[in-house]
Here is the input.
Amino acid sequence: MTQRRWPLVAAIIAAAALLAVLPSRGQSEDEASAVRVINFPRTQRISGDVVITEPIRQASLISLPDIEVPPVKPADPRRLIAAGTITTDGFTGAILSLSVEARGQIVTPAEVGAILVPDEEPIIKVMEERGQLQFPLEVKAMPSAGALYFASEPARVVVGFPRYRVLIYNATGRTVTVSLFAYLTG
Here is the structure.
């Protein structure tokens, strides 16, 4: 072989190698692909079949609708209206939104809000015995004069506990119906 042919042969070999490592264009994205499972140390050992039957959820909406809230100011957390709990386990954040319907015309603008407190024994004990909120997440809505329906701006919060108690306050002086929406994100 002459010296002039070596660059041509090298180019052909490099092109063939490149074609061999490129993915096939004929394979559909919907077709099954082989997956390799690597076992971690004993605490995370995987055994048996690994099956995912549907897409893994990245977000979830939790609604607490139609909570009737009489006038109660947020100054003393022990008097706030308990509205249930929200489980946030597996999520790192949430977007909280509050929708309010007043049972009569609101004359003086005042807030209606939801406070989420971690549902952990020491934190609840401090709230119940001392009236202090630790690690609260809050969303609030302020009505315009004469409004019967109003809502909060969405509040993006960082979730730090697997479960929260929801407490509602209403400083308007009128009974209101509140709906809380928590869009949990990963």
In short: Residues 5-44 form one domain. The CA atoms of residues 37 and 157 lie 35 Å apart. The beta strands are 59-69, 81-87, 93-102, 112-118, 137-141, 149-151, 155-158, 163-170, 176-185. The mean pLDDT is 85.
